[in-house]
Specification:
Helices cover about 30% and strands about 30% of the residues. It is an alpha/beta fold. Strands 3, 4, 7, 8, 9, 10, 11 and 12 form an 8-stranded mixed β-sheet that branches. The two termini are about 10 Å apart. Bound molecules: flavin-adenine dinucleotide.
Length: about 280
């Protein structure tokens, strides 16, 4: 078994760390931003593919993650995962896991630590040159750490409002319109959204927030008087296709765009497989 350094403490890095520890590796996670400071904590997070490729792998990774999240929802309340019904306008009704990221990321960290791994803040200028294997889950940071300028930010703004008794998600991603979604958590509801390619600012815009609330309320009228709790912007690490490959002692796993949560367990299984080869 190897000593593995995982770079990145977003949903991708932490999930890889859990699977690597379960496979018997010794794992240390290092990251500039700790989990509650990452893009991952901003995610809505519906387990549903969006802005990620390639299509065939995305389908396989999504199916794997759906199975894991569905099992988690049944097994462990503390993970913050629920399976909820909803409507994808133009596609019909469906059931999908919904992940409460501010609860789920600390749960993943606790899993890493319970399995003997560590999570440490460290801002790297290059991928580490120690450890048997390095797993690069640095998201947008791969522009620096992988020298990969095909990874670009796609900014997404959300408005988080109080719960108003909503237990269904709703999504309207029809072509030609900005994506509108309403994703309920136990105590709050996430409304979105936007997808601004090439935008690096994480400052929420009041005008955009008003537009999000208007679109979300048109989709789900019960939101009409919901009190706003906070505004957030996250930078999705978009890439023409997810990079999941081994190059010598480095396994790259980044570029999950708008689907990092959705693909996380499927990709983590493949990362473990690449270490065993
Ligand atoms: C508004 C919004 C809504 C979304 N909704 C969904 C959804 O419904 N479903 C879904 O599946 N996905 C959704 N996403 C997408 C999802 O959030 C991302 O795909 C996911 O967070 C990417 O995870 P990651 O771990 O690769 O990156 P990140 O969460 O960005 O983590 C990257 C990690 O790498 C570290 N790092 C980077 N550079 C360095 C360095 N130089 N040194 C050390 N560490 C470094 C960072 O500090 C961080 O810890 C949404 C995103 C946004 C913004």
């Amino acid at each position: 078994m190897s000593r593995v350094i995982v770079v990145g403490a977003g949903v991708v890095g932490l999930t890889c760390a859990v699977r690597l520890l379960e496979a018997g590796h010794r794992v240390d996670v290092v990251a500039r931003d700790l989990p509650l400071e990452t893009t991952s904590v901003v995610a809505a997070a519906l387990v549903h593919p969006y802005l990620a490729g390639p299509v065939d792998l995305v389908e396989r990774w999504t199916a794997r993650s759906q199975a894991v999240f569905t099992a988690l929802a049944a097994q462990d309340d503390r993970a913050g995962v629920r399976v909820l019904p909803g409507t994808d306008v133009g596609h019909g009704d469906a059931v999908a896991p919904v992940v409460d990221m501010p609860r789920y990321l600390p749960w993943l960290v606790a899993r890493v630590e319970a399995l003997g791994g560590t999570v440490t803040r460290l801002n790297l200028a290059a991928l580490p040159d120690h450890g048997d294997v390095v797993v690069n889950c640095s998201g947008l940071g791969a522009r620096l750490l992988g020298g990969d300028h095909t990874v670009v930010p796609v900014a997404g703004q959300v408005v988080v409002v109080e719960q108003v008794g909503l237990e269904r998600w709703a999504l309207d991603g029809r072509d030609g319109r900005p994506p509108t979604y309403v994703v309920p958590r136990e105590r709050e509801i996430v409304l979105g959204g936007t997808d601004d390619a090439g935008e690096w600012s994480r400052t929420p815009s009041p005008q955009v927030a008003a537009d999000i609330v208007e679109r979300a309320t048109a989709l789900v009228p019960a939101l009409a008087h919901a009190r706003v709790l906070r505004h957030r912007v996250g930078l999705r690490p978009a890439r023409p296709v997810v990079r999941l490959e081994r190059r010598g002692r480095v396994v790259h796993c980044y570029g999950h765009g708008g689907s990092g949560v959705t693909l996380s367990w499927g990709c983590a299984d493949d990362v473990v497989g690449l270490l065993q080869d």
